[in-house]
Design a protein that fits this description.
By secondary structure, this protein is mainly alpha-helical. The protein is built from 4 helices and 4 strands, in the order ααββαββα. Among the domains are: about 50 residues; about 50 residues, no CATH class. The protein has a two-stranded antiparallel ribbon. α1 runs antiparallel to α2. The protein starts with a helix and ends in an 11-residue tail after the last helix. Bound molecules: zinc ion.
Length: about 150
């Protein structure tokens, strides 16, 4: 039973008592019953408003999800573009051949190998990068005598 129906039921019960309309207590009871009925209607209106607001929030939430999908799609598209403009994703470093002056792009694996042949003139190139030098001379035994 809804509260409006309960309020109407109480009003019907009071009317069934056939109270004396001139009695002061009857006026109090009547006033209370009127108040209860008004409050019940007010609460029902608020509930309806609350439901409407919830529906609107749900609609906004769906719309926002659509906007988020579009935004994230755009970001993914941007990530697909190559970050560096060097033309090759593998060439993380560049070395210049001291013999012929050719600029050679090398990746991290080639760098850790410590050396390679110049593809232009065939000169053996050795990569000395700072980490080895900072670690001291003790680790030079790994390069042996070539
Ligand atoms: Zn060279």
């Amino acid at each position: 039973m809804k509260i409006t129906e309960k309020a109407a039921y109480i009003k019907g019960l009071a009317e069934g008592l056939e109270l004396d309309p001139k009695d002061k207590q009857t006026k109090v009871i009547k006033a209370l019953i009127d108040l209860v009925n008004e409050m019940a209607e007010e609460v029902c209106e608020l509930e309806q408003c609350y439901d409407d607001v919830c529906d609107q929030i749900d609609a906004l939430d769906e719309d926002l999800a659509g906007v988020e999908d579009l935004l994230y799609e755009d970001e993914e598209d941007d990530d697909d573009e190559p970050v560096c403009g060097c033309g090759s994703d593998d060439a993380a470093y560049e070395v210049t051949c001291p013999t012929c002056g050719a600029v050679i792009g090398i990746d991290e694996n080639q760098l850790s190998d410590g050396g390679m042949s110049c593809p232009n003139c065939g000169e053996t190139l050795e990569f000395d990068y700072d980490e080895d030098e900072l670690d001291g001379k003790d680790e030079e035994e790994s390069s042996d005598e070539e």
